[in-house]
Specification:
The protein is an alpha/beta fold. It contains six helices and eleven strands. The strands form two sheets. Strands 6-7-9-10-11-8 form a six-stranded antiparallel β-sheet. A five-stranded mixed β-sheet has the order 1-5-4-2-3. The chain is elongated.
């Protein structure tokens, strides 16, 4: 269902020939500051390790890196390039690029740092999957980071982005794409366990889909978050997709009702 990750880098040599390299999870700097576990490596620590290797320093052991949460896409791309060059790959094995982040068009976001899901893929007629892909500078974490787990509001925002991305990519026909707006009717969230800043799998299941005129439809979806094979959170999401011009006219009418012009009293 979810993409299989493989490791990049050369075969480990030298000090690591007869010893299995220890596994670390790569995370953002702010996440590492909240969770200073010895098997978490911040993106800055990785950059410093690469600098040391390029200067000829030899570590005691090689390292194997798996993807956690928090590092920016730009810094990840940069360290991947550096690991693949020179002697660095002898000492650092890093999981290959996973699914790309969902696009700004799919998630209705302006800044890449605020896109926190990978590009969703269709698993069955009504089921779609993605990975959580947090940059710890994102809007939901930039002014609130506490504890050792991923905050609930981050998961709710990831659910919203899944609805938008799946709707734009799979549910709206090409003829109407870019001409529709999404309206949220209900979000019910249940947190089953803490979500750690490691790999998180997201599944969106369309439960009901009721078509209206043109491109309009209303749907119920269940979004679930899974970590280490266990259900961590579930979100019931009811939403509509409407013609954008209709929605704007409805909003304008509501504004006129609440903020009358020309001194008219509000009815």
């Amino acid at each position: 269902m979810f993409p299989t990750r493989t490791l990049s880098g050369q075969t480990l040599t030298g000090a690591a020939d007869d010893i299995s390299p220890p596994t670390f999870y790569l995370v953002g700097d702010r996440i590492k500051s909240q969770l200073p576990h010895p098997r978490l490596m911040s993106i800055t620590e990785l950059e410093e390790l690469i600098d040391a290797l390029l200067e000829g320093q030899t570590p005691a052991r090689a390292r194997r890196l798996l993807m956690g949460q928090g590092a920016s896409a730009e810094r990840l791309a940069r360290v991947r390039r550096r690991i693949k060059s020179g002697e660095v790959g002898k000492w650092i094995q890093m999981v290959e690029d996973g699914p790309a982040k969902a696009s700004a068009d799919l998630t209705h976001k302006r800044y890449v740092r605020n896109i926190i899901i990978s590009d969703p893929q269709q698993h069955s007629d009504t089921c779609y999957v993605a990975l959580l892909s947090i940059d710890d500078r994102c809007a939901e974490m930039s002014d609130h980071l506490s504890g050792k787990h991923v905050q609930g509001m981050v998961l709710i925002e990831a659910s919203r982005q899944m609805v938008l991305a799946v709707g734009e990519k799979f549910l709206i026909s090409a003829a109407y794409r870019g001409r529709c707006a999404f309206v949220t009717h209900r979000i019910d969230t249940r947190f089953h366990d803490f979500v750690l800043p490691l790999e998180v799998q997201i599944r969106l299941q369309i439960d009901t889909l009721r078509h209206g005129g043109g491109s309009n439809f209303k749907a119920d979806a269940t979004i679930t978050f899974h970590q280490s094979g266990k259900l961590s959170a579930s979100v019931q999401f009811t939403f509509s997709v409407l013609d954008e011009h209709f929605l704007k006219s409805r909003e304008s009418a509501l504004v006129q009702l609440q903020i009358p012009v020309d001194g008219e009293a509000k009815q």
